[in-house]
Design goal:
Blueprint (H helix, E strand, L loop, with lengths): L20 H26 L2 E6 L3 E5 L1 H6 L2 E4 L9 E6 H7 L4 E5 L7 E10 L6 E5 L3 E21 L5 E7 L3 E7 H4 L4 E7 L7 E10 L13 E2 L3 E20 L1 H4 L2 E3 L5 E3 L2 E6 L8 E5 L7 E6 L4 E2 L6 E5 L2 E16 L7 E3 L2 E9 L8 E5 L6 E6 L1 E3 L3 E4 L3 E6 L1
């Protein structure tokens, strides 16, 4: 039995097979061929040449800007049928470039309106793709005159603000639009919607608008209309809600010949809710009577600086009592008010006052007062305040008063 632990003689060595240079070259070439073959198989399996069908491809128009510069515009583009084509190429190339396949329609050299046939061609974004079948050679479209006009933009407020009225004022209430005459004729005005529910301080902003047709219906789509601006700028001024009395007053034309009897004139309602700015110092809202009548009639409230009259409070119903007016001088009795405590006032008890009033006004219809509040002992020249339900105006008058 051989001893496995027995050492071999020192001169005994294990031999190794040696490759020649030609054998090593053959091995390298074989490895390269196998690698290329494997790579080709992977490419073929993962990125094969295929053919696909593209549906509803994009249609582009060359020469359209020049057409508009000549005063024309294309219509009917939205009515073109869906165009499909079959394109072949490597799968990776198709994935990269298929969105760039489009139909090119040349609209050059148009000299008149009406129906025109324009040449069309399929454009490929790269030579790596091949058009197999499909496409079109021409399309038929209408050419219309290019029209331009201005439309008015109205403001429509949405939302409710329980504490404030908001007056929205457009920086410019018109917008210029252009497009095919058939579409432009169908636009009457635009409406910008502003939500006022959260507005509590003066603000400004840009607002989009919707176009409306002659029948007051919103236009939901347009093929050719372009607007000078897609938004309008608005200033929103905040007015505090407040109820104020209605004060009937005559128009300038009626005031030349008539006076209103405020004690007998009836207003409905007598109070209106309006918006008030801090600078407003009035005590009521004027309602302008602009015609002679003795029956209940609708009249408009008169807006003044610092006051906002909402749309649902623009008018009130008034039964006016008017009288022909004249200028007359009456001797009226004077009453002192707000006499300082502990003092007495010496003054002329009556004075002549020139009034513009109803023809039948008597001294008993006129109230004349002097206000002595804040005056010290001594002599003073004090204005007489004159009023009356049928007194339109009076010439200023004053008297001497001595406080003791």
């Amino acid at each position: 039995m051989k001893n496995p632990f027995k050492k071999k003689p020192s001169g005994e060595k294990k031999g190794k097979k040696k490759f020649t240079a030609s054998e090593r070259l053959k091995t390298i070439i074989t490895s390269l061929v196998c690698a290329v073959a494997i790579w080709l198989m992977v490419v073929y399996i993962n990125d094969p040449s295929i053919t696909i069908t593209l549906n509803d491809i994009d249609v582009r128009f060359t020469g359209e800007m020049a057409l508009k510069e000549d005063g024309y515009v294309l219509t009917g583009k939205n009515e073109l049928p869906d165009i499909s084509v079959s394109v072949s190429g490597k799968r990776s190339d198709l994935m990269d470039y298929m969105d760039g396949v489009y139909v090119n329609v040349s609209v050059d050299d148009v000299l008149s309106t009406g129906e025109h046939e324009f040449p069309a061609s399929i454009e490929l974004p790269t030579t790596r793709l091949t058009l197999e079948r499909g496409g079109i050679s021409s399309v038929t479209l209408n050419v219309e005159p290019l029209e331009t006009k201005e439309i008015q933009i109205l403001v429509r407020q949405t939302g409710t603000n329980k504490d404030y009225f908001v007056a929205s004022q457009l920086e410019s209430d018109t917008v210029e639009i252009s497009g095919a005459k058939s579409e432009i004729d169908g636009v009457s005005y635009g409406v910008a919607s502003i939500d006022v529910s959260q507005i509590t301080a003066d603000t400004s902003g840009e607002y989009t608008y919707t176009m409306y047709g002659p029948s007051n219906t919103a236009l939901t789509g347009s093929e050719t209309i372009e607007a000078q601006s897609a938004v309008v700028h608005a200033e929103n001024l905040v007015y505090e809600r407040r109820s104020l009395p209605v004060i009937p007053e005559l128009s300038a034309a009626l005031a030349a010949d008539y006076v209103i009897d405020t004690s007998k004139t009836v207003c409905s309602p007598t109070m209106v809710e309006v918006g008030v700015r801090p600078e407003f110092a009035g005590v009521g809202v004027g309602a302008v009577i602009d015609k002679v009548t003795d029956s209940e009639t609708e009249f408009y409230l008169h807006p003044v600086t610092g006051i906002y009259i909402p749309g649902d409070s623009q008018t009130v119903r008034i039964t006016p009592v008017l009288a022909k007016k004249q200028t007359k001088t009456l001797r009226v009795r004077i009453t002192a008010v707000n006499v300082p405590e502990g003092m007495t006032a010496d003054f002329t008890q009556e004075t002549d006052v020139t009034l513009t009033c109803a023809e039948d006004v008597t001294p008993n219809d006129v109230k004349a007062e002097i206000d002595l509040s804040g005056l010290d002992r001594g002599s003073h020249h004090v204005a007489v305040n004159v009023s009356g339900p049928r007194v339109a105006s009076y010439d200023p008058v004053s008297i001497d008063v001595t406080l003791r």
